Each structure stands twice: as C-alpha cells, then as structure tokens.
Amino acid sequence: MSSAHAGPGDYSRVPNPEQALKYAIQHIAGERVEIVEGVITPASPSWAHETAVDLIREQIGPRMRELGLRAGSGNLDLPGTQNFYVPDLAVVPAELAKTEGALLPDQTVLVVEVTSPSNGETDRTAKRRRYSQFGAPVHLLVDRQERICALFSQPGRLGCTRVEGPHPFGTSPHLPAPLGLVLDTTGF
C-alpha cells in the first residue's frame, strides 16, 4: 500500500489551513509579513512612510496615556478569512497590548494605514472593507500618493456608515472619541 503525499498547495491533510498559514507567517524570522485576501505580502516601509506614522504617534501620544492606551503595529487577525494584517499603527487598551498573539480589529480604538506605492490600492479598498467588516471602530487612511487622509467609523457589515474626508494634507481632521483630538496632517 502506498501512502500519498500532499503536493504544493494541497492543504487537504492540514487540520486547519487558515490557522497553519497564519501561524507560519508569524514565524518568518526577521520579516514583517501580512496576508491580504490570501496573498502573502512582505512589508518594508520607507522612511517617508514611517515618518507619517511617527507624526501620528507623536500627536496622539499624550491623549493615549491619559486614556490608558498603547500604540504599535501588532498583528490583527480576521478569523474565517485569508487575512492577517500588520497595520501601520493600531491603538489598543493597555491590557490588550500585553497580548502575545494577534488581536481582532474590534479590540482596537484606532487603526491607521499609510499607503505606499506598492500597497496603496490594497489599503484603499481591501483593508478599508475588512476593517469595517471586523468592527474596527475608527480607521484612518493616510494616502501619501493622493495626499489626502480619510476617517472611517461606525463599522457595519457593508462598510463604515460614517466617512469623513478626503481631507487634503495640511488640513486638520478630528479623530472621534475616545481620542477626541484634531490631527495635524501638514508633515505627512
């Protein structure tokens, strides 16, 4: 009797392919990797990209500390889908920031995605839709190519019910409660 071996792409013998794939990408040594609609995507942000993220972090930092929140780019899982995101910035309650594993979008206070030439369309469409579907209360999109930012809040199954923007860089959009502050976009 011969035993059949699984070939490349054959996950029929894996008990839970979604969990196996998500586990594997979290353990790629030294790499920041996410899965967007089933496509494994390495993330290697530029200095300009990281500057935009840093400017946001600096502005919201004092308010986060007042509220007992923490910011980082930890993993966000979207269970039941072929998606596992590493947002450019996520703000979460301090107790959740101690979690070793991935969090869910609905456990965040704010999710920030900053576009790059290589991933702009993904951030504008797939991530925007998925963050809403999975209950991220506020999603800020900083579109460096279009030089605008937009806020999406009040998530629903078909998308966010509240959209603010696009706001051209240099304007000052208001981040809703609990952060409740005005964001200076001049340096983006």
Describe this structure in words.
With 188 residues, the protein is an alpha+beta fold. It has a single domain (17-182), classed as tt1808, chain A, CATH 3.90.1570. Helix content is 23%, strand content 27%. The chain has 4 helices and 12 strands; from the N terminus they run αββαβββββααβββββ. It has helices at residues 17-26, 47-67, 120-124, 126-133, and strands spanning 33-36, 39-42, 69-72, 76-78, 83-85, 89-93, 110-114, 138-143, 148-153, 162-168, 174-175, 181-182. Strands 3-6-7-8-9-10 form a 6-stranded mixed beta sheet, with helices on both faces. A hairpin with a 5-residue loop joins β11 and β12 (181-182). The protein is globular, with a radius of gyration of 18 Å. The termini are far apart. The relative contact order is 0.13.
How does the overall form come out from the CA principal axes?
globular
Question: Pairing-aware structural class of the strands and helices?
Answer: alpha+beta
Q: How far apart, in Å, are the first and last alpha carbons?
A: 64 Å
According to CATH, the fold-level topology is tt1808, chain A
The strand count comes to 12
| Second CATH tier, the architecture | Alpha-Beta Complex
In summary, what is this structure?
The protein is an alpha+beta fold. It is built from four helices and twelve strands, in the order αββαβββββααβββββ.
